[in-house]
Amino acid sequence: MGGNVFGTTAPIKREDIKPTLLEFFREFKKIFPKAHAHFTGIKTIGSVGKKEISGDIDLVLAGSSFDNIDDWGLDEKHVQDLFTAFRSRARTASEEQSMRRAVVVAVAEII
Fold it and tell me: What pLDDT, on a 0 to 100 scale, did the predictor assign at position 4?
C-alpha cells in the first residue's frame, strides 16, 4: 500500500530500531488492546537495519489481520464510509482490497 502513517519520519540508527519498535508495540497495544493476537505477525521489511542508518522502518502485517474490525475497535459506519469513498474512485482494486484499505486507513487515523 505504501505511504507514511505518521506524516513525517526521520532517519534512524541501526541501534535505535529495536528499542523504537518495542516502544511502538507497547503503545500500539494500549491503543488496540483487542488486536493483540495480530501483533506477533508484524515484521520489518525492506532495507531496515541493513545499513548503519535507515531512512524509515517499514512494517508489514498479514492482510487477514484486518478482516475483523472489532479486533481494532473501529467504528463500523466510518469504515463503511471510507470503503464507499474508495470504491467510487477505484479503477482496478477489488472490493476486498478497498475494504482492507478502509480498515487500514481507519487504524492509521487512530494512530
Answer: 59
Mean pLDDT of 10-17: 91
Contacts 24+ apart (CB under 8 A), 52-56: 52/13, 52/14, 53/11, 53/12, 53/13, 53/14, 54/11, 54/12, 54/14, 54/17, 55/9, 55/11, 56/4, 56/9, 56/11, 56/12
Question: Are 10 and 50 in contact, with CB atoms under 8 Å apart?
Answer: no
Identify which of 1-15, 28-42, 43-57, 80-94 has the greatest average pLDDT. 80-94
* Rg, C-alpha atoms of the chain: 15
